[in-house]
Amino acid sequence: MGGDYAVIALYIAGMIGVGWIGLRLAKTKSDYLVAGRRLGWFMYSGTMSAVVLGGASTVGGVKLGYTYGISGAWLVITIGVGILVLHAVFARRLVKLRVYTVGEMLDLRYGGRASAVSGVVMWGYTLMLTVTSTLAFASIFKVLFSIPSWAGIAIGGSIVVLYSVLGGMWSITLTDIAQFVIKTIGILFVLLPVALVSAGGFSGMAEKLDASYFEFTSIGGETILTYFLIYTFGLLIGQDIWQRVFTARTPRVATGGGVISGVYCLVYGIAGALIGTAAKVLYPDLGSAQDAFATIAERLLPTGVRGLVLAAALSALMSTSSGALIACATTTTSDLFRKIGLKSGEVLRNRVTTLVLGIVAIGIAMLVDDVVNALTIAYDILVGGLLVTIVGALFWKRGTREGAYASMVAGTVSVIAFMIIDGVAANSPIYWGLGVSLVVYVGVSLATPRTPDSILSVWTQRLHGSEAAEDLSASETRQELTQ
């Protein structure tokens, strides 16, 4: 595997080198957290695709294809649908608000300290999302070096933490573009056609597998619905995704680039399921379905090409892991630290926070053994706790601060309670979380005084991108440069 090692080594060296470039670009809070809000169409769509298609979408997507066939694509398809809806409905508004976190948006809309509650929920979500992608490093490095899972997690996680700490969102954006290109070539143009030909094409696979492997709904209607509730809605409100939206140069860039990214996600989801289906034909007796991706890459591809495909897998894992890590750090500094009087604008504080959280995520990943379950925990808590409050903030003027508080707490507690009662993989936590959150939000909002007009007027000005909002943004930038 000498050729593979050389390709992987070049890839890793390139990622670290880009991190050093990002170090020179990240001079202000805006640079470090949202790449100065300067991304154009290509960089925006590439980095958006990279951040959402990570370990669960690649290793997990192939695993679901190995287990269920073509219907295993639904997990990634629902992610793609979420990206499409986000950019068709929400993106223009989010870019105009010129905030850094979901919590800041809620504070602006409800006129209070909503970020204190939402920040805790979002922190848990982004940390677990970092863990899922970091966990998936184990299967790749196991194939490459035959090392224990914990060592693979430590190696992959350390690389991500290093370049994320150095340049923040600029490093992550530059590495994401490289990772997007590598991932597209490695997965779509190399592994997919090789896997299909090796398995005998569609006719050959159909002869060796049960017919359910080629039914688009064989994974189950309830599971598909749950994927939509968790992942489509989760993509609408996740800090890691919003933070990428905030990097767009203009609302038009966000909308157009996001639609391109959403379509790419749909194609990627089907490709992963087909690769998993081919793996089931070729290697029907794997000890763990989670090893399907690494196994088919190791056994089918020649040296050098195999290294490229494994680098593509690493690209998928690193892009999502780094995006979630910077989102977790941003939530910590902008929402949580700010509540205890610490300034969030200092780049050094953001770097130290990113480093500490990265180490914590690596430690947790060593204790978790299922990437899809870990992702389910993250999205269940996010959607059950925050979806109703965020959508209400954007579309229902009668929603109040008290309703927002009560809804976030009730939804989160309900999700956690039913995870304990029915299990992490059950569908009930998200149903109960959303139901309770909605009832509490509407009930408490109607029972409490309306949000004052003075708060709503500021919200409306920012939402429509008024000159006052632009002046405020310019003032914030000058303050960052003087810190």
TrEMBL record:
Protein's membrane topology:
Multi-pass membrane protein
Q: Name one Pfam family in it.
A: SSF
- Gene Ontology biological process terms from the UniProt entry: carboxylic acid transport
* Record bears the keyword Transmembrane helix: yes
Q: Where are the transmembrane segments?
A: 6-26, 38-60, 72-95, 116-141, 147-168, 180-204, 224-242, 254-275, 308-331, 352-368, 374-396, 403-424, 430-448
Q: Which CDD domains match?
A: SLC5sbd_u3
InterPro entries reported in the protein's UniProt record: Na/Glc_symporter_sf, Na/solute_symporter, Na/solute_symporter_CS, Sodium:Solute_Symporter
Alphabetically sorted, this entry's keywords are: Cell membrane, Membrane, Transmembrane, Transmembrane helix, Transport
> What GO cellular-component annotations does this UniProt entry give?
plasma membrane
Q: Name one GO molecular function term.
A: transmembrane transporter activity
Regions annotated as coiled coil: none
Question: Where is this chain's protein located in or outside the cell?
Answer: Membrane
**This protein's superkingdom?**
Bacteria
UniProt family annotation: Belongs to the sodium:solute symporter (SSF) (TC 2.A.21) family.
Q: What is this protein called?
A: Sodium:solute symporter
Source species = Amycolatopsis dendrobii
Taxon lineage: Bacteria, Bacillati, Actinomycetota, Actinomycetes, Pseudonocardiales
